[in-house]
Amino acid sequence: MCLSACCYQGDICLGCGRQMQLPMAFCGKCMLTPKLKIVAACSYHQGLGHWVGQIKYQAQFAVIDVLVDALIERISYLISIGCLTLPQALIAVPLHKKRLQQRGFNQAWLIAKALSSRLNIPLLDDCLIRTRATEPQAGLSGKRRRKNLLNAFELVTEINLQRIALIDDVVTTGTTVNEITKLFMPTHTQVQVWCLARAEAPNCG
Ligand SMILES: [Zn+2]
């Protein structure tokens, strides 16, 4: 399998993940409402989703490096066309400590660690925690996803930075990252999201 062929090609809307004809951050529809910038290496549905799933479910970490390379390429491209500014720090979407104990690792943290050392941007550990062991988001409707995550995260250290990037393995509807982003509003910290794969759900645009 040629990995790069499965990664995003061309210009992709950072709001909804749709292909665009012009090098811009957002498509016309997403420009109308403020959206988080979500940068992904690939679409979960275009051949690589299985590999991204293997990180979490099979502890297959080799794929991280390859997809982190593709993600960095994407980030560099977006910076070159003026659609993105590098963050001052990275924060991984945390697991609840109970789930971390069960699984033994947090795939988002592993990805963030790789990005941090490749880009030389500090990774902030322990500033964001998951206070509740929530149900898995998969299979829940939009409303239940939001309810499931209500007050599920807490910032335990105040972050006084202009820009941070939240790191996750897969972003689907963006409920999780949008929920976390709210915590950074009081300090006016701009949040962007970096992930390996984006699973575009219908009507989430
Ligand atoms: Zn869009």
The fraction of residues in strands falls at 15-25%
CATH architecture: 3-Layer(aba) Sandwich
Q: Give the strand order of the largest sheet, numbering strands 1, 2, ... along the chain.
A: 3-8-7-4
Report the top-level CATH class: Alpha Beta
What is the radius of gyration?
A: 16 Å
CATH topology: Rossmann fold
Mass-distribution shape: globular
Structural class: alpha/beta
Mean model confidence by pLDDT:
90
- Main beta sheet, described? 4 strands, parallel
SSE series: HEEHEHHEHHEHEEHE
Heterogens: zinc ion
Helix content: 25-40%
Give the tally of β-strands: 8
Flag low-confidence runs.
none
Explained architecture:
With 205 residues, the chain is an alpha/beta fold. The protein has a single domain (3-198), classed as Rossmann fold (3-Layer(aba) Sandwich). Helix content is 38%, strand content 19%. The protein is built from 8 helices and 8 strands. It has helices at 3-6, 28-31, 44-58, 62-80, 97-103, 107-119, 142-149, 175-182, and strands at 11-12, 19-20, 37-43, 89-92, 128-130, 153-155, 163-171, 190-198. The strands form 3 sheets. A 4-stranded parallel β-sheet has the order 3-8-7-4, with helices on both faces. α4 crosses α6 (107-119). It is globular. Residues 13, 15-16, 18, 26-27, 29-30, 205 line the site of zinc ion (ZN).
